[in-house]
Structures are given as C-alpha cells and as structure tokens.
Amino acid sequence: MDEDVATSTDTGFAALGLRPELLRALADLGYEEPTPIQREAIAPLVAGHDLVGQAATGTGKTAAFALPLLQGLAPGASDAPAALVLVPTRELAEQVSQAVYRYGRDLHVRVLPVYGGQPISRQLQVLRRGVDVVVGTPGRILDHIERETLRLDAVRTVVLDEADEMLDMGFAEDIEAILTETPEQRQTVLFSATMPPRIDAIARRHLREPLRIQMGRDTAAADALPAVRQSAYLVARAHKTAALGRVLDVEAPTAAIVFCRTREEVDEVTQSLNGRGFRAEALHGGLSQDQRDRVMGRLRSGATELLVATDVAARGLDVEQLTHVINYNVPSAPEAYVHRIGRVGRAGRTGAAITLAEPREQRMLKAIERLTGQRIVLEKLPTVTDLRARRLEVIRTTVQEAMAADDLDRFRSVLASLTDDADVEQVALAGLKLLHEANGGDVDEPEIPSIAPQREREFENRAARRGSNGPGRGRPAEDAVTRVFVGLGRRAGLRPQDLVGAIAGEAGLPARDVGAIQITDRFALVEVPEADAERVIRALSHSTIRGRRPTVRRDRPHR
Ligand code: AMP
C-alpha cells in the first residue's frame, strides 16, 4: 500500500503552488489529489497564461479555473469585481459560485451569482456593497452593464465556462459585447466540452497565445481491460444515495468497492448505506495504516460487504473476492475509470462495473467508451416494483434451499400442532410472511424519477436545431415533443436565449433538450420533450422572464 497516502494532500495541490488558505479549504473538503485537468491547468493559469481547455463536466474543470482565480485575488481590495465567469445557465451559475465560495472560504471572497429570473434588486444591493467574483449568464450580465450597475474595468480574469453550450444558446453576441467591456490586458480562460470551429474562432479573436489542454487523449491505459460487465445509471444528484442503495439491493455483491470523489462524500455514502442495512466501511486517506489493514481484513472475511473509498485510499489495494466496482460519480478522467475497474474480473473471474452518472456527465461516459473501446450499457434504475419482486424471489430461493436440507424433522411437532386447526397452506404462508419481514419487509420508498439518455445524435444536432424556427424541424421523429405557449413575444423584447435560459434555469431541463423556438410579436412557442412538459410549464408559470410573469400553457393544436 502507498506510503504517501497520508501526505498526498500536501504533495498534490501544494506542488501546484497554491496558497495555504486554498490548501486548507481543499483539505477540509476532502479533495485528496488534483484531477488530471487540474494538474495541467492550474500552474499555467496561476502564471497568468490564457488557456483553452477541452473538458466536460465531471473532470474537475471548475476547480481548475476557480483555484488560480482565487490565488491571485486580494478580496476586498476594490469594490469592482476582479474576475468574471460566464456560464450558460442559472444552475451552473449557482454551482460555480458556490464552488468559488467554498474554495475561497478562508480568503473571505465575495462572490455573486447573476442570472435572469432572479429579482434584479437583490443583485443590485450586493453589487453596490462590492464583490470580488461575478458568475453569471451572459444575458443578465449584459443587462447590468447596460444599466451601468456592473463595472468590468477592474476585471483581471474572464472565464468562459461551457463555451459550446453558451454558443448553442445564442449567447455569442452577448459574449462579444461583454468581452469588449473588459480590459485588454486581462487573462482569458475558455473551457468547452467540444471544440467546434466557432469556439476556435472565439479563442483566436479574444485569447492571447493560449495554452491548449485536451482531456481524454491518452489511450495507453486501456490495454489490459478485464472482462467486466459495464453499465451505468442516469440519476439526478438529489436521488443518488437512494439510487445507490437500490442498485446494490438488486446486484447483491459479495464484495464491492464504492468509489467516491472526496473524503466528505465517502463519509456521507458510508453512513447512508449503513442506514439502509448494508455493512459498509469507509476507507480514505485519513485512516492510519493499521486501521486500513483492519478494514481490509473485514472485507476479506466477509464481515463487511462494501468498502467506500477515494481513489487515493484504494491505491494498491488488492482484494481477490471483489465482485463489483461501483462508481458513485463518473471518474474525473477516463484513465481513472480503467484503473478502478481493473480491480474486478481478475484471473478469469467475472465482475461488474457500475457507474452512477448525473445527466450532465453523459459526455464523460462517451469519452470512457472511446478510450476502452467497450460499451457501457445505460440501464434503467430498478423500480420499487422490481425491488419487491426481487425480495420475493430471494425468499423463494431461500425456502427452496431450506427444503432440500435434511435437518427439518425437528420442526415436525410444531407443524403438527399448528395444523390441528389450520391447513398446511395457511401455516406455510404465515412462515413466508415472517421470513419476508425478517428480510427487511415491504419496500417502502418513493420512486426515483428515471432520466432518458441523451442520444448521440442529439449531441450533434443540437446546434443545428437551435437556429431553426419552424416547429417540428430537427428533432428525431421518435421523440414525443410538446409545444408550450408563452405569452411574451418580440414586443416584450423576448429572445430565444431568454426562453432557453429560463427553461434550463427554472425547470432544470438541459438546454440541449429545448427544441425549436418560434417567437412572434406577442407570444412564443417552444418545443420541449413531452415527458418534461408539465414540469417546464409549472416552472415557467412561476418565473419572471424579461421582467414579466407570462401566461404559460400547452399550445392548443388548432392555432
Ligand atoms: P466539475 O467537473 O468541475 O463539475 O467537478 C465535478 C465534481 O468533482 C465536483 O463535485 C467537485 O466538487 C469534484 N472535484 C473537483 N476536483 C476534485 C478533486 N481534486 N478531488 C475530488 N473531487 C473533486
């Protein structure tokens, strides 16, 4: 086992030259080592270079730009922001600003998320008090610039995060306009999951001799991949622990490792699994060698069935009995995935690798498939009905096995007395019920909403579709689509990106799932997947778009 486990936090991030306040925050968050994109991007960014990074959600890209940005910050020195991060959606604005806040905790950084749909008055108040970092959607940032409520002349770093998404949403002009408001001497950082020519054009126009980093290019690690069943489940963040429990219920592994990203997550997941009746133990870099040995011993002997671990903690670990590797998140680099699943299916035994992915992380799954040349099958989460059926099946096989045993005679007298005034069937049924209850009883938990996978084609088509304004074009025919009526149009200044932003932000629907948009003088029609229509209508009815609260309903077909 690795000698350096206990000190890896110091050697990992400290070697990148980050200041002590940041190192402390990272250690407290339980980050044990930088992800590949962080290892490559942080030092050049700290040195002031411009950078173009091709990296998808799940790679740790947020910290890759947020940490260098915080490294150079003197919070409170000025009331005008020193850094501006542009993001496509409200959801991302909140996530990124939360990340900046958490990493910059000990620096007392003042960060403000700014997006449409949120009352502008609150943003104004905070801006007046002074902020160091602004994270916002281009439309709303431009609003503030036009109202002269946001000054960008002190900005030293601009980050364009998920640049391809922003272009897809029609923010290209807004981005150009915003960049011209910032000092020429600024540092500019661009992250994008894909690199279409339009992104390249922006990079060429606005970045100075940028360093280019591309993740997932290395194919060396994939050679020795064992025969492992590989599957993934799409789960929203809020349902992950429940989903993990359910998958484990159905898979019933003999011995499994559940990989988590941080020490914090290891503890949370371990607790939740034990709460569900699994025997799970945490393994992370914070444990002494002695403690680790004991945990491993319990896994080998079967006293523990699940190990919950970070990559660092599991390094060098070799467990013969391992049947399952479970990725609680998509690993931050495809190579890490290959590393992890190399632990099962050894010496000709079969094993399974199961990954829980948030909808936004599907691109990372594709990158892993490209690296390994093997399919990861997207499966549907077991439903409550599946679980019930599974538990009854377990009872059936348990009883069947017991019936084959030869030590049943001692129960004959009990059976005889019970059948004095009941028939044998009645007694058998009561016995089954008791066994069922002893096994945990009825499954009494809410359904986990299932998420439809993004088709490959949609990744490719979405840019094309965004521009189309005739309903019905561009979307694959097999997708059921609903047209939603929004009672705001051109006269109210409505633009396609306002709608896409509101739908993504308020209903949490990925921008790429928004179909054709038609805007007339007085109203707009937007196509969304039928499965999400109700949610979108409900969310939009309660939101403010362009300062108004529009009527929102299903479009009547006879229009
Ligand atoms: P991102 O790709 O920026 O969306 O980050 C994906 C997730 O990885 C986030 O939940 C981060 O908190 C987490 N994360 C980022 N860097 C690290 C790291 N070095 N170690 C562990 N977790 C990380």
UniProtKB/TrEMBL annotation:
Q: Which UniProt keywords apply?
A: ATP-binding, Cytoplasm, Helicase, Hydrolase, Nucleotide-binding, Stress response
Q: Name one GO cellular component term.
A: cytosol
Q: Which residues form the Helicase ATP-binding domain?
A: 42-213
Top enzyme class, one word, equals: hydrolase
Q: What is its EC number?
A: 3.6.4.13
**Location of the motif Q motif:** 11-39
Pfam families documented for this protein: DbpA, DEAD, DeaD_dimer, Helicase_C
- From the UniProt entry, list the residue stretches annotated as the region Disordered: 458-478
Q: Which domain of life is it from?
A: Bacteria
Start and end residues of each Helicase C-terminal domain:
243-388
Under the GO molecular function aspect, what terms does this record hold?
ATP binding; hydrolase activity; RNA binding; RNA helicase activity
Catalytic activity annotation = ATP + H2O = ADP + phosphate + H(+)
Start and end of every DEAD-box RNA helicase Q domain?
11-39
Query: Gene3D superfamilies of this UniProt entry?
Result: 3.30.70.330, P-loop containing nucleotide triphosphate hydrolases (3.40.50.300)
Give the record's family classification.
Belongs to the DEAD box helicase family.
Q: Protein name, please?
A: RNA helicase
- Give the source species: Actinoplanes siamensis
